[in-house]
Amino acid sequence: MGLPTLRQLEYFVTAARCGTFAAAAAEHHIAQPSLSEQIGALERSLELVLFTRSSRRLFLTDAGKQLLPLAERAIGGVVELAEMSKRVRSVDEGTVSFGTFNSAHLYLLTELIREFHAEHPAVQIRVTGLNSSEVADAVRDGEIEAGLVQLPIDDRELTLTPTVFVDQAVYVSQNRENTLVPIDIETLSQRSLILSEARWSQDDPLRVSMLERAQRAGVVLDPIVEVEFQTHALELAAQGVGDSLVSFHVGRSMIARRGLFWAPLDPPVEEHYAFVTRRAGAISPATAAFMRMAQQILARIHATTPRELVIDG
């Protein structure tokens, strides 16, 4: 027994509703013999008689009455599938599935989510704030579609865009005298340091960079306090516990609000950020639009970078 086609089911449902093959054919804009032939093929494939025919009207047989609700559900399911596909392909519906580092809300995510929601109010937004290495793992495992990460990361099975944003690590102190000139690694080794990313210290690009500099210079960086978040390190610095290293744009508002002072590092430590997607994966229109808007906002943020942190070339 062959399977009925969607077209055959549609013709059957219409004929049952209209009561004649002629009316059903007219509704589908086809010739009556073509519709009759398709319904006959449906009856043969099911090995059932679906209609009894009088001179004026069609009547459903018992088998036809049992088939009708099944056919209607089958057609409704296909229509629902098509509508679902349309929603998924639309920027105005669907879900943003995105990950980024946990401090991105301090200068990017709030503005990004607000503007994106205003432009696409029907889209659900799911943003997870994680460490960059965890974001890469989540994208690789298919848990999220895309992310914004600090480089370098393990890019196995992943696709990285060119750099979309550059920040710089800066030295922060409650004491203005400590920030009058750029800070080199020898000076840094003599200061009481509060460092963040305690859990991820082995993978934190800033930690790795500073430790490599210290090793080359023959000095030791030994923090007096280690905490998880840069904001916590800044709060401790504001209370005079010690000095810290933070990404400028992450700490910018808090530095100004808490009366802290900052200086660039010598040589500078640039922090490069890129979008990451799964090499074999697909990006929904909603997530792709979210990434485009993120890049636009990052460009606006970059334009406000202080001159002393802008490296020519």
CATH superfamily of the largest domain: Periplasmic binding protein-like II
By DSSP (H or I, 4+ residues per run), the number of helices equals 11
Mean pLDDT: 90
- Report the portion of residues in β strands: 15-25%
Instruction: Quickly give the CATH architecture of the largest domain.
Output: 3-Layer(aba) Sandwich
The name CATH uses for the topology of the largest domain is D-Maltodextrin-Binding Protein, domain 2
Along the chain, the helix and strand elements come as HHHEEHEHEHEEEHEHEHEHEEH
Written overview of the protein:
With about 325 residues, this protein is of the alpha/beta class. The protein folds into 3 domains: about 80 residues, Winged helix-like DNA-binding domain superfamily/Winged helix DNA-binding domain (Arc Repressor Mutant, subunit A, Orthogonal Bundle); about 100 residues, 3-Layer(aba) Sandwich (D-Maltodextrin-Binding Protein, domain 2), CATH 3.40.190.10; about 110 residues, D-Maltodextrin-Binding Protein, domain 2. Helices cover about 45% and strands about 20% of the residues. The chain has 11 helices and 12 strands. Strands 3, 4, 5, 6, 7, 8, 9, 10, 11 and 12 form a 10-stranded mixed beta sheet that branches. Strands 1-2 form a two-stranded antiparallel ribbon. Helix 1 packs across helix 2, helix 5 crosses helix 11 and helix 9 packs parallel to helix 10. It is rod-shaped. It starts with 5 loop residues before the first helix and ends in an 11-residue tail after the last helix.
